[in-house]
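On clarity, I found the account of how folds are encoded harder to follow than it need be. For illustration, here is how one protein appears when written out as sequence plus structure tokens:

:::
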Amino acid sequence: MKLILVMDNDCAIGRDGRLLTRLPDDMKRFREITQGSVVIMGRKTYESFPKRPLPNRENLVLSRSAKAIDGAEVFTDIESVLERVRGAGQKPVFVIGGAEIYRQFEQYCDEALITRVYENFGGDTFFIDIERSKDWELAEASIVLETNCHKIRFFRYIKKRVI
């Protein structure tokens, strides 16, 4: 499984239940990377999308409520989600948020695709400082790009293996 997210200089990933900013290049990259995959998210993240479910993906929602959601499979516990993705075959699996979902699934992920926005947005929801984490190491980094008047960079981290 892979984590995929955008964060600012303070490791903020959201504010007031929404993304920090609109990044067209990142959204395009997200669509391309996650096409044909399984995506895992919380209910609030699912409800934040203008178009639901995310097309051409299997949408899995982890929620405290077992209430059905059109276009998504709903699970009330992480073990059920993990069992479901084990049966996903060869499809890639992405954890796409929010913060609590990232926290719950991080230990099961072996890769993190992070878009870093070189600004501070005063967020109220945060991800770990992966650059300083003893559990992750940098595998790839893009050049700095400018999109929608923001400087961004794409990073790929891999989970360190304990020997």
Remarks:
- The CA atoms of residues 21 and 86 lie 33 Å apart.
- The first helix runs from residue 24 to 34.
- The chain has a mean pLDDT of 94.
- DSSP finds four helices and eleven strands in the chain.
